[in-house]
Amino acid sequence: MKQIKTTLLAAFTAALAVVAGGVTAEEKMAEKPAVQKVQGAFPQSFSNAGNLFEEAPMARFEEVATFRISKGEKLREAMSRWTETAGAELVWQPKPSDGDIIFAADMEFTDNFEDAAESFFEIVRKQTKFDGKLHSNNVLRVFVANAKR
After folding, report:
1. At the topology level of CATH, where does 65-144 sit?
2. Is the pLDDT at 26 greater than 90, yes or no?
3. CA dihedral over 15, 16, 17, 18, signed as positive or negative
């Protein structure tokens, strides 16, 4: 049944091309080969090609560092600095109408980035409507969790 449908479709396409005074797609394809034949093995050799892949330094997310918040600093500014230091990406989801936090005191967290961010946001989520989560793809997402506060 499938072969009959294919044959009918090809015949219909050819008839349509003849009626329209054109050349069928099959005839066009017969004029030019779709692929070029390569003599010999491919690839011939990568030995002289050098390093084919760009080497990127491995980020050390478990490295212990000191992450600081300064009195008078805004949450977005601090998290931008933290993520830059850790080689992570910041995704800021609060709307402009949600505002930002201005910290009333200096804070310091000495730990790896994941644990420092978690400790920091434990404090933030208890006192404000903001929250944050570090995802496995190393994206720190800051969002409004509780609009009642």
Report:
1. Phage tail protein beta-alpha-beta fold (3.55.50)
2. no
3. positive
